[in-house]
Structure prediction request, 569 residues.
Amino acid sequence: MSELTVKEESNEKKSLNFIEASIENDLKEGKNGGRVHTRFPPEPNGYLHIGHAKAICIDFGMAEQYGGKCNLRFDDTNPAKEDVEYVDSIMEDIHWLGFDWEDRLYYTSDYFQQLYDFAKDLIRKRLAYVDFQTAEEISKQKGTPTQAGEVSPYYEKYSVEENLDLFERMNKGEFEEGTCVLRARIDMTSPNMHMRDPIIYRIIKHPHHRTGDKWNVYPMYDFAHGQSDYFEGITHSICTLEFEVHRPLYDWFIDQLKDSDYRPRQIEFNRLNLTYTVMSKRKLLQLVQEGLVNGWDDPRMPTICGLRRRGYTPASVRSFINKIGYTKFDGIIDVSLLEHSIREDLNKTATRVSAVIDPVKLVITNYPEGQTEMMSMPNNPEDENSGSHDMPFTKELYIEREDFMENPPKKFFRMTPGQEVRLKGAYIVKCTGCGKDENGNVTEIYCEYDPMTKSGMPESNRKVKGTLHWVSADHAVDAEVRLYDRLFIAEDLNEEKDKDFRDLMNPDSLKVLKNCKVEPFLADAKPMDRFQFTRLGYFCVDKDAKDGALIFNRTVSLKDSWSKEKAKN
Ligand code: ATP
Ligand code: MG
Prediction:
């Protein structure tokens, strides 16, 4: 473990973040009878991304830490955009991250009747009215943050009875989408734009994935969210900073609704933004729908399922979230910090294997024809209990094409005529030359081995600068390897608002190598198995690997540029 990590972890133990401090304060004051009850409220209109993981970790994490409960609630208030596919994927991803809502699975649609009844109560109290203006007209009257809005001509047009009748007819389907809305009657002069008679119901004539055709009116998120928290007895409603300005509105609704002292406390934190990627569900959906990536779980996507397919572990995602922490300021996190977390995790757990991704043949001319020696390879030098596995060594091997140069520059310590190198875990060999085709391309490399230098023998300590990985040509297994780079070329996509984000995609984000050779130990590898390919990085078996064919995704390379950069500072 690096010094940096140790320091970070011990810091975290010492001080509470502001969310913990606020919860502890409530507990100290005896609020809510000592209960801590949180919720994670995704809208099922897309797959979860790493930003949601940050919300999940704090919502479920706080409940865990304070002996409380965390609900999963699908905020399914817009049937036109939502789907059960998303519901299922969200549940799978939360479980994968290591959290559980037990028997507390809820849907905002469970409260549609209660919310509808509450809206009618507001009408009865003359705190809501039906407005037949167009969306444009309504937005024109909203004013600006420094200029009061105008009162709607519908503000007092209808009596309570007429408003109730209109709202019911809206729900029966008598009006078309967009002809009218229900608005709360609050204050068109409020300095908070959200308090200027917000729309609380709109007509949507699209079947809902749970309630079918029952409703033609659907509550706006702002009208549903705070009340749903209230109905569920949520004590701490943790959300992202953009909802801070909505809080007075949520409180206003609860004031009209509540019959006790209890009210959920909303606490806002900074949302996660990562370099070289997008985090908006709308944009991620666009990438999927337009075929710019290979689905939601494309290993280049910042989605949880994408990270999973890429080879990330739940522990590495949680440790990343833990490192970045929770603040009150929006910013952007370097994606290399995420890569650092998975490296740190896999370094401890991944079995070391040998794979050659751009193979060229190496012939050991003085090695006996037909002989096979089994070389014992440690599974993980970081873990003394990890054992070892055997790897066959033969006269003909494969090594990486880039590990050979006929006329190398200075300080090339790999394979070149006249120079000795070590074949990892086997012998020291001396290169004697190479064979070429008619175009001058190297087809074979020749070397001689020194039998006295077998790994473990005294002579093997001889000083040689380069160590190369290899696989036996007779025993190697064919594999496809997929190398990934950043999906976008721009570091901070929020700063490129004038450009179409699709024009900022990295054309070289995926490189497929079809002709790779891996050691036979990998023949039985199963989808999601993770390995360190010596000198190349961490890889995991892709789910496309079927019928004995092997496909590996590179999770991350071995080089840790992030911690080196940090160490310099
Ligand atoms: P939408 O634009 O569709 O509302 P959303 O990303 O906010 O997108 P939700 O399903 O509403 O999607 O998100 C569920 C929860 O996850 C919310 O509480 C939200 O605050 C939180 N969340 C969403 N994105 C991030 C992020 N980048 N970082 C931290 N939390 C996030
Ligand atoms: Mg949202």
Observations:
- DSSP finds 14 helices and 25 strands in the chain.
- Residues 41-43, 45, 51-52, 54-55, 239-240, 271-272, 279, 281 surround adenosine-5'-triphosphate (ligand 1) (CB under 6 Å).
- The radius of gyration is 31 Å.
